[in-house]
C-alpha cells in the first residue's frame, strides 16, 4: 500500500505503510496492560462487607473490613458527622496502636482492620472512614454508614398503663357483678320467706274460721 505526500518542491514521494501484524497487536496490548498496572494500587486491597449498619442505643457494633497488602500497612479510622471529624484510632500491625482519648474504653481493634464500638449512642451515628496505607505510600479507602436509633420507651409505658387500666376495670366489673348476684340471691331468699309467712297466716285464718 502506498500513500502520496506532498513534497516541498512540488513533487510527490511515495511512503510505504507497515501492515498490522499479530506482533504489533501484542505490543499494543502489553503497553495498555503496563499503563493499567501503573495506574492501579499496588498490592493493597480493602473489602467492606457491610457498608450500612442500623443499631439501637447501648448496642455493641462491629465495623467490619478486611484488607490485604504485601507489606505492613497502617490503618486509620475517622468518624465524620454534623459535629465534625474525629479521629478514632490509628495503628500499624506489630509497631504501634494509638486510640483517641474519647474512644479509649469503647474501641477494640482487630488484625484485619476492623474495629468494634461498645455501647453506642446517638452521637455515634454518621460516616466512618477507614484508610489503609501501604509501606510505599499507596492508600485505599472504605466507608461505613452507621445509623443509631433510640428505643421509644413512651410507647411501652402507654401500653403498660393501658393494660393496667383494663385490668382494674375488669376487676371492678367482676366485683360489681358478684355484689349484684349476691344481692339478688338475698332478695330472692327474703321474698321466699315473706311468701312462706303470708301463706302460713292465711292458713291459720282459715283454720280459725
TrEMBL record:
<dbReference type="InterPro" id="IPR013783">
    <property type="entry name" value="Ig-like_fold"/>
</dbReference>
<keyword id="KW-0732">Signal</keyword>
<dbReference type="Pfam" id="PF07686">
    <property type="entry name" value="V-set"/>
</dbReference>
<keyword id="KW-0472">Membrane</keyword>
<dbReference type="GO" id="GO:0030424">
    <property type="term" value="C:axon"/>
</dbReference>
<keyword id="KW-0812">Transmembrane</keyword>
<dbReference type="InterPro" id="IPR036179">
    <property type="entry name" value="Ig-like_dom_sf"/>
</dbReference>
<keyword id="KW-0325">Glycoprotein</keyword>
<dbReference type="GO" id="GO:0005886">
    <property type="term" value="C:plasma membrane"/>
</dbReference>
<protein>
    <submittedName>
        <fullName>V-set and transmembrane domain containing 5</fullName>
    </submittedName>
</protein>
<keyword id="KW-1133">Transmembrane helix</keyword>
<feature type="transmembrane region" description="Helical">
    <location>
        <begin position="156"/>
        <end position="180"/>
    </location>
</feature>
<dbReference type="GO" id="GO:0046847">
    <property type="term" value="P:filopodium assembly"/>
</dbReference>
<dbReference type="GO" id="GO:0030425">
    <property type="term" value="C:dendrite"/>
</dbReference>
<dbReference type="InterPro" id="IPR003599">
    <property type="entry name" value="Ig_sub"/>
</dbReference>
<feature type="domain" description="Immunoglobulin">
    <location>
        <begin position="50"/>
        <end position="149"/>
    </location>
</feature>
<dbReference type="GO" id="GO:1904891">
    <property type="term" value="P:positive regulation of excitatory synapse assembly"/>
</dbReference>
<dbReference type="InterPro" id="IPR013106">
    <property type="entry name" value="Ig_V-set"/>
</dbReference>
<dbReference type="InterPro" id="IPR015631">
    <property type="entry name" value="CD2/SLAM_rcpt"/>
</dbReference>
